[in-house]
Amino acid sequence: MIRAVGTPTRLTFARVARMLGVETAAELLKHLRLPIYAISTIAFPLMFYVIFGITIGGQGENAVGVATYLLATYGAFGVIGAALFSFGVSVAVERAQGWMRLKRASPLPGAVTVVAKLANALLFAAAVVAVMLLAGTLLGGVRLTAGETLALFGSLLLGALPFCVLGQALGYALGPNSAPVVINLAYLPMAFASGLWLPIDQLPGFVQGVAPWLPAYHLGQLALASVGFAPADAVLGHVLALLATAALAAVAAVVAYRRASLATYG
Amino acid sequence: MAHHFSPPAPASRRPATPVVAFEGAGHDYGRTVALDGFDLRVAPGEVVAVLGPNGAGKTTAMHALMGLLSPKRGRVLLRGRDPRDRAAREGLGAMLQISGVPETLTVREHLRCFAATYPAPLPLADVLERVGLTEVADRPYGKLSGGQRQRLHLAIALVGDPEVLVLDEPTTGLDAASRRALWSILRALLDRGRAIVLTTHDLIEADALADRIVLLHHGRVLAEGTPAEIKAGTASRRVRVVSRLDDAWFRARPGVASVRRDGQAVEVLCASAEPLVLELLRADPDARDLEVGGASLEDAFLALTQRTVPPTRAVLASAAGQAVAA
Questions:
Q1: Which sign does the torsion angle of CA B226, B231, B234, B235 carry?
Q2: Residues of chain B with CATH 3.30.70
Q3: Chain B residue whose CA is closest to A12
Q4: A6 neighbourhood in chain B, CB within 8 Å
Q5: Is the ipTM of this complex over 0.95?
Q6: Residue in B6, B98, B140 closest to A97 by CB
Q7: Residue range B263-275, pLDDT digits in tens
Q8: Is the residue at A227 inside a domain?
Q9: How does DSSP classify residue B123?
Q10: Cβ–Cβ < 8 Å for B112, A22
């Protein structure tokens, strides 16, 4: 069979939707079958919340208040982890394998790869918040209204997006072995200094001074506002800070991507 | 190999519109020139092997053809379009040198992802059958053998039923049995009117699969032709003899491309054997164990690379290594 030089087809909505569906399903399956990923993105934040938010926090007289406050901040901690790890580590690993290159050589639009990873990160982020909410409700006496629940999920999932961009930048800047280490070195101290583990007002003064410069602090404050623990009039400032983070991370991602694609091959 | 093709005209004279065209393509990484004025046209249904030692620029050329990099000089066309244009790649199937793919997904899941990116993919069962992975279709990538992994990489390239198949070192790292298995799969693809561009540093592989060979060295085309034409080039004859004459004497003869010691014997590659033999027997009547033969592709390759550039250890080692490995 001899074919004429084919005319390229136009991308229809149906074809893009199909690619996106298949890619997202693959991305999810890939991570669900990887115990280390599910453990570090869901089990660790949940465990921290149960230990510090419910068990230790439950000792005082305002146990429900503490459990609710820390649900917001550990929720922020959880979604940031899902964003940084599902983007940063998987991009670094797949780039090193040459897998990313193979995808770029295929007719798959680059945006589909990114959106599939985004969907995966957000689904894991939603899952980690959901299990924490369940634990808080069952074990910590947390009672959120429907509106608060919606606001908590909404702020945490939208707020996770800048961290997905940051993860993408780190994935292109780091190697497959250094990525998990470097991301943890940035993520864990940032979470602490942003008041995601302990309420910000219990941290030393100089840490409180540093916190507004950390994007995780602003996500934590947004989540707290959604359950009534932070002033609502400061929300705009936190949103702007997160948008600025996303913009800076996007520039870094483009620079890192360009540098990575200039790397020499045989 | 030509009998595998339709139409049956020799590839070099086939007048069809090229599906792949490199036009003076050049690229460098900093000071390292990877590709220098590279020209190549591939007609539909043609199988071209780009052959060269490591660092010859083969992968750079293939990456340009896959739209992974934009050459700094000249241009590359895939089906008449820029390969960086996504739509142009709907006619391209690529097999790259990759160290792995996500290990928790199965053969079938990986294939399904790539099939979705093409407008008219082949049925998965068909592709699985063709590369011999039907039995392990639901096995995760992490549990496949090296040969099975490489066949999945080939299946990924095939699944879109592309007009142009680009295979970058398809058999590197495979054992002899897996390599032969892959060759026979590739040969079975040859009757489909599909152009194949493959790179290899294995001369036997190029000879076994391609109907045209492009010899690439330091980013430049050193020679181009059918395997037979390559052999009929300048260093087409091999003279082997045990003689008291030294290497310098042989090198000084006209038409001598290379001189190599092999134990007691000396092996000389040259354009024409008879004048050399005549002079040799005059200069050393005691010469013995004289053998005259056609040069193998390896010999031709070695001679060509030696003549064009100063023979570096790396080139010789690489070519000699291939000869041994083959």
A1: positive
A2: 233-325
A3: B119
A4: 79, 90-91, 163
A5: no
A6: B98
A7: 889 998 887 888 8
A8: yes
A9: P
A10: yes
